[in-house]
Amino acid sequence: MSHNTFGHLFRVTTWGESHGPALGCVVDGCPPGIQLTEADIQPWLDRRRPGQGKFVTQRQEPDAVRILSGVFQDERHPDQVTTGTPISMIIDNVDQRSRDYSEIAQAFRPGHADYPYFAKYGVRDYRGGGRQSARETAARVAAGAIARKVIEGVTIRGAVVQIGPHAVDPAKVDFSVTGDNEFWAPDPDIVPIWTEHLETVRKAGSSTGAVVAVEATGVPPGWGAPLYGKLDAELAAALMSINAAKGVEIGAGFDAAALSGEENADEMRMGNDGVPLFLSNKAGGVLGGISTGQAVTARVAFKPTSSILTMRRTINEAGEEMELRTKGRHDPCVGIRAVPVVEAMVACVLADAFLRHRAQTGGGIHQPGA
Ligand SMILES: Cc1cc2nc3c(=O)[nH]c(=O)nc-3n(C[C@H](O)[C@H](O)[C@H](O)COP(=O)(O)O)c2cc1C
Fold first, then answer.
1. From the CA of 112, how far away is ligand 1's center (Å)?
2. pLDDT of res. 80
3. Which residue of 112, 178, 316, 364 sits 20 to 30 Å from the alpha carbon of 290, by its own alpha carbon?
4. Is ligand 1 within 6 A of the CB of residue 210?
5. Average pLDDT over residues 76-89
6. CA-CA-CA-CA torsion for 132, 46, 73, 89, nearest 10 degrees?
């Protein structure tokens, strides 16, 4: 009933709140014998960590992860490996500041989840947004790090491709340069434009939205399933489950509606290596819910942060009308820090799809002419 779990064979349950002592997750179904220590997970968490730039929340969290179960090491396994049992991970919260939230103890932030949580449960941990807080996404990133080890041949890379009205020219997207700037921008030329935009937004006490693009290369044909386990449907559900996500596109997405059949259908030839060659990738690497062997591509639209310093009209738990400006440390553009989370969700979905494909078919691929 509580829906804190996702995945089928690679099954992730997250737990914890923003201002509790810790948060974490349990990954169940990870195959045994995979080398795994905290050092495999920490670098991914470090990419999501708050407090790392001028345009993200200044909350300082080391996000140091500890593995509590599901791994083993002895003289026969000198490198610690997974055992096939649930892997539990914990991340301490160390920089909580609850006083920032006294004003929203009774009031509902417009655009945030305060009101529906109250309407549903009648009680809510308002400190830092409690369970609604994107602190929870640290646990997703930890799970995603394990998923990446399950599908080691797959490379998953995300990038911010739009902040506010300023989009990157699709022809200039280069995923290999995203680590060179504080925005995960795939084109260095956009950085000064975004810097100026965010400076204006921050000074105004406002916030702005963003679009994150992600691609997974190295996914073989065959992952995913018709009809109710479509890979694109599962990716969309996983990506929409990220805080502040408001839209997901696979491949050409909404633009496909404006294309002709000729423009949209990815033509095929036989490649020199005996593997089919697609001449374009409007499908985003998925047809009929099953991967084609092309890069799996998606885009996620993130709304502007709802906690802003501008005075807004709202109501409180007593039903009284009031005005509220939200203090505290907030991301002026949540899409920036969402990049590692988007990658992690794609990793978890693909690891799950891989394990299910292997369970049903043995994992082989049928190639034309073979
Ligand atoms: C990485 C990340 C950081 C976020 N930081 C904030 C924040 O600082 N302040 C805020 O109000 N919302 C923030 N959010 C968004 C809220 O968590 C989200 O809007 C809220 O849980 C309501 O859910 P919904 O927007 O999905 O409907 C963040 C989201 C992400 C993905």
1. 8
2. 98
3. 178
4. no
5. 97
6. -10
